[in-house]
Every structure is written in C-alpha cells, then in structure tokens.
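User: Show me a protein chain along with its predicted structure.
Assistant: Here is one chain, sequence first, then structure tokens.
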Amino acid sequence: MAEMIRGLKLVLLGRTGIGKSASGNTILGRQAFKSSKSSASVTRDVAVESGTVCGRWVSVYDTPGLFHTELSDGEIQQIYESVLQRCESGLCVFLLVIKADRFTGKERRAVEKIEELLGDQRLKNTWILFTGGDELEDENMTIEEYINLSEPLKRVVQKYDQRYHVFNNKMKGPSEQARLLLVEIMQRLKGTSAFSLPSRRIVLLGKTGVGKSAAGNTILGQREFLSKMRMSSVTSECSVAHTTVSGRSVSVVDTPGLFDTLMRLEEIMTEIARSVYLSSPGPHAFLIVFPVNMRFTEHERQVPQQIEMMFGQDVLKYSLILFTHGDLLEEESVKDLIEGNWRHLVQQCGGRYHVFNNKDLNNREQVNDLLLKIDTMIEQNGGGHYSNQMFEDAQRFRQEEEEQRQKEEEERKQQVEKEMQERIEKVRKETEERIRAEMEACRFRSRLDRYEENRKREEKDGCVCS
C-alpha cells in the first residue's frame, strides 16, 4: 500500500439532522456544504466538494438524510444508487454518521436501512463517524464510555470491527481531527487488497519533437521509450510500457508525432488509433504534449482539431495539456505563459494543464501531482474513461462524414457535368441555329442574285427588240 492515498472518496450517510454536512465541512476545513440545525434535511441532492486534506486529494459526497425529508424512499434510494455507481472506481470509504446522544429505535432503523442499501461488500469499506463530540466533552465523557452505555450500539460498533471516529463539528477551519480520521482510515487500509489504488492508462499525443517519449519516461521513472531531440519522429509506431507509481498500476502509450513529414497522414492516423486498443478497455487520460518554449503557430492551433478528428468530440473531456521543458521557465511562471497564446488551447481541455521537467526522472512529486489531476478530471467526468466504443463511434461518424463528403463531391461533379452538358447543348443549338440562319441567308442572297440576273437579262433583251 502506498504511503499517500490519492483520490480518496468519502461518502457521508445517515439520517436527517445528525451533522453530515457539518462533518463534510470539518473534513475539508471550510464551509463547503450548507449546514443548519433542522429536523428537515438541508441536502436534497448529492453535493460533492473536493480539496487537499493533509496532502491527500479528498472528494466528499454529502447525501440527503434518511427520514424527515421531503424526498420519498424511492427517490432517496435512486440517489444512493447513483452515488454508489460513481464510487465503483477508485478508493471509496463510506462514513455512517451517528450523533452521540441517544441511540434510539430511529437511529437503529437508519443504520439498518443504510446497511441494506450498501450491501455486505461495501460494509467492509464503512466507518462509523460519531458527531456531537463537543457535547461529550461538556459531559466529560469519552466516546468509548458513550458506546458502552448502549448494548445495541456496542453491537453495531463490533459489527464494524471497531472502525469508528468522533467529530466536534463546532471547531472551525482545518483541524487535527480530520487528519486523525484520514490516518485511521489509512492505517486500516494498509495490507488489504480491497483498497488498491485505481490503475491509470495514459496516451501521449503531440507533434514530432515535443518530448512525448521523454514525458513517458518521466511518468514511468525509467527510460522505456527512445527519446532524442530531433525534428523527425523517433517513434514511428505506438508502444506501451507499464510501471507502479505511488501504489497504483500505470500504463503509458507513446505515439508517432502528428504532422510527421516522414509518414503519410493516413499512416499516422491509423497508427495513433492503435493507442486506444493498446490501453484497452480505454485510456483514462490523453496528454497533449507541448514544450513550454515552443512558439505558438497555426500548427499548434490545429493539434486539438486533429485529435478531435481522430477520436471524436468527447476526447477533450479526457485530455490534459502537458508542458515539457519546465526547467526552462526560469522567472516566467506557467500561468504567465498560458495567459498568452496558449490560453484558448488550455481552455479547450477544461483548463487542465501540468508542467514536467523531463531532466529530473527522480522527481516523483511531479508525477504524483499529474496523477492527482487525472483523478480530478475523472471525477469531473463522473468516473470512467475514454472507451473503445467512443472511439468506434468517432470512427463511424468520421466514416459517415467522409461518405457524405464523397457523396456531396460526386453530386457536385454530376452537377458540374450536367451544367457543362447543358452549356454544350446550348452552344450546339445556338451554333446550329446560326448555321441554319446563315445558310438561309446564303440561299436568300443566291435567289436574289438570280432574280437580279434574270431582271437584267430581260431588260437587255427588251432593248435589243426595240
């Protein structure tokens, strides 16, 4: 198990009015969720807020409370099922929130209902989070003493193998109790395969010579891909390599350069398309690589269009701009760099970008930060990855577009030929009419000439007779 858990999801569950939203605020150290003392549920839908807690990226899911809510049991069950689906991938822990006052029949029914919704397998990933720690302090009572007051509560805690924690939600700002909760979770997770960190499949895209192969080596922490500074592409076909980064399996696919002058466009597109299948069932992230010192030209502007043409419009939802040669930034920050010509390109990828110094293979923090951003992107996409089906849909759409273009081109050619034939026919008719008119005029002049000759002959003969 890695020392640092990244992309941890915490799902708050429980009945109305026991402090779920306030607990989410305590975990994140800020007023992320609306919280009030009320018997009616403040949360009507799932609210998700994220942040860094003690060096770990944490996403907190606040759910509507069971009972005393305007939502029906059926609506609540649908909401819970949608949350459970979103937590299928990645590291997810469920926090069953119980207020440390009286463990009544209502509390027991809420616990039973949540256990029914979660199922046996997810209960292994569930902790009890007691709220009302401030009231226990006022009564000079420990949480263990409170648990021992109720035999039903003791049985519940035993069922969860003593996985419990207590919060005083009146404490504002970042607190030690949130750190202790994460440490407790981490300690419990060590040594169990049920909580392995999610694997990540990454595809590198970009022009020739931008440092794709070097970036792949940086992610892997070793020189797996051939990397040289040259204008012609070192990589002529896709290649894949695997490693373990911070406790998770990571695969990286290196691809030929876009606009490579040594390969035909059809060859480049066909080869890059293989990257989806090499990362089957589909990549979690496409890293579009640019050096920080590259001049922004029309070619750079066309890169996202080329990628969209190959992989479809959805591809940029799974894309992140990776700037290489971070060691050359010197006094200029990457934000200053992006505010220039690169801003629109970064915005096309949802504002996501990262910077690598490929000369420092031992700097694993830059790789962990990249994986953290990929985790966040996946979370924003509702989980999952770019799939083979998306690629096949994009290819089919592209083929249909090409067929439509060819059809329109054929229709245009036929229209041109038709117009040409019509013009030829018109010229032919006009020519024939002109020739007929000229011939008619010629015959008329011939008859006129004969008439004139006859007239002159008759006049001459008349003169001779007299």
